[in-house]
Amino acid sequence: MRTPGKQKLRDALYTLYERRVRRSLSPDRIPRHIGVIIDGNRRWARSAGNPVSHGHEAGANKISEFLDWCDDVGVKVVTVWMLSTDNLSRPADELEPLLRIIEQTVEELTSIGRWRIHPVGALDLLPGATAETLKAAETATHGVDGMLVNVAVGYGGRRELADAVRSLLLEEAAKGISIEELAERVDVEHIARHLYTKGQPDPDLVIRTSGEQRLGGFLLWQSALSEFYFCEALWPDFRHVDFLRAIRSYAQRERRFGT
What keywords would UniProt list here (predicted)? Predict the structure, then answer.
């Protein structure tokens, strides 16, 4: 058991280290777009003997804090994966409270008034109340001149690609373009213009918490040239210094962009 004196010293050393890492960051080496896979909420709750909803609530509370950190170092776009298409098959007694937590979180992010909210996902798969909350957030923050926050709810990378191709086919068919003509001239840019994140820079850095080292379907198209940072901390325990380390790790890499 830590004594108050030892804890005080530990906190002071942590603060000094955090400042040191922050000062080491170069403004011209900050990622423009960060994607974050928030993972570990359920394990965090279970490790303390609490219902999984406690973990989801703790994880939701971390999101605005994380966005503050991104804003502070000059990130322009953040994509937060809050709920995958696979998560929609979870038992109702877990999924329904989680959807309410997501709705409340999106409303809170909207009320802050500093960030432009953009829903990313298959809204047609979501309950009406959740989809309407996401749409309302986008409308309410449309004119905000601040960091763009993609809220990925009901998101799956494969579903996004299927939706992009479907949208492209419908658009070209409306112009009278045949399948044969489209097949001859379609390229990656045609598809990119129909992604959920169209018009945005691809993520420079993707962070995943909880020690898992996989994408799980997150931004499959957009992350082709991204840098990845996997952190052992469960999402509710993810600290400012963990974030700064991720940025430092990114800044120290030599990006080759596939060459």
Answer: Magnesium, Metal-binding, Transferase
- For 30-155+202-251, the fitting CATH number among 2.120.10.30, 3.90.850.10, 3.40.1180.10, 1.10.357.10 is 3.40.1180.10
Selecting among 71, 87, 163, 242, the annotated active-site residue is 87
Q: What is the pLDDT of residues 121-133, one digit of tens each?
A: 999 999 999 999 9
Per-residue pLDDT tens over the stretch 204-225: 999 999 999 999 999 999 999 9
What tokens does 32 get? 């423009």
> Which backbone phi and psi does 142 adopt, to 5 degrees?
-55, -40
**Extended strands (E) in the chain:** 33-37, 77-84, 116-120, 148-155, 205-208, 227-230
Q: How confident is the model over 169-195, as pLDDT tens digits? A: 999 999 999 999 999 999 999 999 999
> 79 near 148, Cβ under 8 Å?
no
The residue extents of the domains of the chain are 30-155+202-251, 157-195
Q: Would residue 39 show up in a list of annotated catalytic residues for this protein?
A: yes
- Per the annotation, the verdict on 145 as an active-site residue is no
Between residues 110 and 25, which one has the greater pLDDT? Answer: 110
Please state the φ and ψ torsions of residue 38, each to the nearest 5 degrees: -85, 110
pTM of the model: 0.93
Residue type, 169: L
Is 259 annotated for ligand binding? no
HSE-up of residue 132 (Cα within 13 Å, Cβ side): 4
